[in-house]
Amino acid sequence: MNHYAFTFRGAALRALPSGALWWPDESMLCVSDLHFGKSERVARRTGNILPPYDGHETLARLDADLAETAAQNVICLGDSFDDISAAAQLPTELNDWLARLITVRDWVWIEGNHDPGPLGLPGRHAPSANIGPLHFRHIAMPDTESEVSGHFHPKARFGFKGGTVSRACFLIDSQRIVMPAYGTYTGGLWTTDPVLMALMKPDAIAVLTGPNAQAIPMPRQRSHPRTRTLRAGVKRNA
Amino acid sequence: MIHSPAPLPDPLQEWLNARGWALHPHQQAMLDAAQDPATLLIAPTGGGKTLSGFLPTLAELTAEPRAGLHTLYVSPLKALAADIRRNLQTPIAEAGLPIRVEDRTGDTSASARKRQRADPPHILLTTPESLALLLSYEDAPRIFAGLQRVVVDEIHALAESKRGDQLMLALSRLQALCPDLRRVGLSATVEDPDAIARYLAYHPDPCRVLLADPGPTPDIALLDVPQSPPWAGGGGRYAIPAVLEAIEAHRTTLIFHNTRAQAELFFHDLWLANSKALPIGIHHGSLSREQRTRVEDAMVAGDLRAIVCTGSLDLGIDWGDVDLVIQVGAPKNIKRLVQRIGRANHRYNAPSKARLVPANRFELVECHAALDAVREGTLDGEPRGDGPRDVLCQHILIAACAGPFHADALFAQVTSVGAYASLDREGFDACLDFCATGGYALRSYDRWQRLVQRPDGLWQLRDPRAARQIRMNIGTIMDTDTLKVRMRGRGGAPLGEVEEAFAATLTPGDTFLIGGQIVRYEGLREMTVEVSRRGGTTPKIATFMGTKFATSTRLTERILDMFQQDDWPRLPGHTRDWLHLQRRISRLPRGDRLLIESFPYDGRPHTCIYGFAGRNAMQTLGLLVTQKMEDLGLGPLGFTATDYAVLVWSVDPIDDPAPLFEGEDLRAGFETWLAGNAVMKRTFKASAVISGLIDRQSPGKRKTGRQATFSSDILYDTLRKYDPDHLLLQITREEARRGLVDFGRIEDMIIRTRGRVDHVQLGRVTPLAAPLMLEPNRVPVKGAGQERILAEAAQKLIKAAGLPA
């Protein structure tokens, strides 16, 4: 599997092109912002009836990553469900599928702003988690070291001779990792957004997801309007 | 029904007499046909077409004054509605007629609109979108009570787009509200008046077609330019001295270009060469309204000697003083050329004068073919397909906004529209189901349906608050994502807009052309591109939204026919020699065979395919062929497409091209290719917005940031994977047969050539292929190759930044 390998606070990690973070030494896979139930919540609140297959698609990718890595431990870094009601109303087949994946592993649900509190699913629930030298939580804290968080759905635009791509990305510097959103109908915040620019150190890199996990310096020059659009964790043929 | 000439009411007749005016024969004919349920008038520009449409209304309202809406006028242009209002005021005021005329468009103030709903004028002038919005209100039956006539202006233009389909669906609803409604269509010259008549009329009722005297044959020729046109490119700038002379020799000249970018470049250079400081303006759809209005006003006042313009001036106000039209670049389409020529109509009954400026040698051939077609009076036009179903979905949602409806009744109305006459109940029900539940194979929105069926069988919105959102999304015009351009500083002048994708390539200090001036990009503020006047000398070329037309089938046929001649005595020497050389070294393309040339160039194998299917189809062919080459391991690196040919370069040569063009294979390739193609995704996005799956992205909404938008690309990928037969994918495939993908023309090409492939392998570039080498629009193939380049670029950057790789 192609990946971007790097060492973070002494931990040998791999950013996978799917948007998952793989820690072989701990046999741990970390994914963030799955946003199950998004299409239903949109229908409920706006009337737009989007293709109701986002949960299937997200779960299919997660299943594939788990099979590929044979991970024994999983951390879902919050906003796993679009809201509490979405978690309660997950279609039976997705619920069963998810339960099958959870039961054979140690599975931790970190709370996010969309899904605080315990959920009616197997697995452990926690506001945050410490594993080895690393702290896992949903939203980044300003003064921290060795933190892995999600929430922002970072995405980067990269122009090169022969094209421009915009893809969801990991942001990595010496103190923190901000994970891309793994869910299918999830949008993103440009790396040029002041929030992300302030959060990340000047020498931060962005690892693009997509066909290949590709590292570039974190794009900081704002050549694109500041918009927050919802888009996929993985964008093919961009 | 033959009537004796209908007399005009006295005040109107007296007003005409006082002016010393007599009606044109077609204006009298329109009066005579006033009681027909449907009438189509075909008249050239400047023939008093619009007044013809209103005469019966003025006559009826004068003879029998009454309150309430009598006539609805629909035009494709907001500006036209406002202009017609001014023009109608004159006879109404001077003859003292008891008639109130108002316009209602997106520019009308909220208070005026509210008043119009409460107390409609006798004559309401509007656009298809504003009409659709009016029909979405619960009180539509009251607003339109008593409506007698509807006049559809420029119906030939509306019939070419989904706006026309939306309008005709709206008329079916109006007809249900007002059964005696009479329909009038006003059209410029078209190739098939009966098709427009069927389009207009209540199906299957007949529609009378009135043909006005087309006027004298136009005076049309190539502009006499001493320099020969360049080999490639589309600017026509070599002709600037000759164009300036022509401007000087005429009162007012319209200079048409095919794209906004070309108009900008030409205007810029024209201005630099304008040593006599002739007053010249520029007008196109990406300029700000302030800019356009200023140019239009100056034109009306007679202050301008020339306007460099695009299709934005194809329709609209008749400027009486235009005595010359110059078309720069290949006309692409005979009908549009004829309509443009008609803009030079300083006097009805005087011949219009037009000159063509081919931008390159190939276009010179095309211009000759077009001139012949105009002289012979042949027009082109692709037959219209069935009414698009995404527009029908929007129509269903609009009906639901107005109130609960019965599916049977709505179906009956819809099939009274010519374009939807062949729609079966199953097809209609699929659209209704899509609007109600999403129509997914996985039924998962039972609780959150958009429309629900009540126990009495009527359909209604589940949540009435959804009406607001549906109304905000009314319309079928797809704006590409654009950003406004404004001078920096407080209250900086608005200049126009550029595509967001272009704005994204700018870094501060870059310069580009807009409204004829070079501006310097300073930065983005909110959703606005801020620029300053400090211009550089080599501006970037802004990409503007706007249609890029493909050369019509009829015109390409004429070109292929021309190639079969032994000699071309009427072509200039350089072009004649060029064609003879091509015939000697290789062959000239023919309609019934497919010519393919392979040769090395710059160390790489190149292959040129002369498909003659129009630029959109040739672009699609380029994508399909390179995909197939990738499958065969030939390492395609890129291609470039024109209206006539596609040129492909690759690591390995194509030795046997025949298998690349087998119909079944290409069609299979087309299906696979649907998966990831960006053009296909754009096609899907348009239908997703029109059908109400996702919301239109208005700049205002994006600014608040509260309205989350969905990447239509992801929705498309997901649908393809989990629900490949979904209605919206069916619609997308239908749309792909025409428009930007234009697969229908590739199929035509395959049928036309039937596997008769001539593969010519040569040691060097052929004369006909040479211009393609200079084409600027080179498309890199985004296969394994692109990922490789991306990786190299990324590594280089990481290294340059001193970061660990």
From TrEMBL, chain A:
Keyword Nuclease found: yes
Composition skew (Basic residues), residue ranges: 221-238
Residue stretches making up the Calcineurin-like phosphoesterase domain: 29-123
Pfam families: Metallophos
Keywords assigned by UniProt, alphabetized: Endonuclease, Hydrolase, Ligase, Nuclease
Gene Ontology molecular functions: endonuclease activity; hydrolase activity; ligase activity
Region annotation Disordered: where it falls in the sequence: 215-238
EC id: 3.1.-.-
Keyword Hydrolase in record: yes
Domain of life: Bacteria
PANTHER family named among the record's database cross-references: BLR1149 PROTEIN
Descriptive protein name: Ligase-associated DNA damage response endonuclease PdeM
Species whose genome carries this gene: Meridianimarinicoccus aquatilis
TrEMBL record, chain B:
Coiled coil keyword on record: no
Top-level lineage group: Bacteria
Pfam families found in the cross-reference section: DEAD (PF00270), DEAD_assoc (PF08494), Helicase_C (PF00271), WHD_Lhr (PF19306)
Ranges annotated as spanning the membrane: none
Residue ranges of domain Helicase C-terminal in the record: 239-392
Keyword list, A-Z: ATP-binding, DNA damage, DNA repair, DNA-binding, Helicase, Hydrolase, Isomerase, Ligase, Nucleotide-binding
GO biological process annotation, one example: DNA repair
One Gene Ontology MF term: helicase activity
Listed SMART domains: DEXDc (SM00487), HELICc (SM00490)
UniProt entry tagged with the keyword Hydrolase: yes
Stored CDD domains: DEXHc_LHR-like, SF2_C_LHR
Signal sequence region: none
PROSITE patterns the record matches: HELICASE_ATP_BIND_1, HELICASE_CTER
InterPro entries, alphabetized: ATP-dep_Helicase (IPR052511), DEAD/DEAH_box_helicase_dom (IPR011545), DEXH_lig_assoc (IPR026362), Helicase_ATP-bd (IPR014001), Helicase_C-like (IPR001650), Lhr-like (IPR017170), Lhr-like_DEAD/DEAH_assoc (IPR013701), Lhr_WH_dom (IPR045628)
Residue stretches making up the Helicase ATP-binding domain: 30-208
UniProt family annotation: Belongs to the Lhr helicase family. Lhr-Core subfamily.
Protein name stated in the entry: Ligase-associated DNA damage response DEXH box helicase
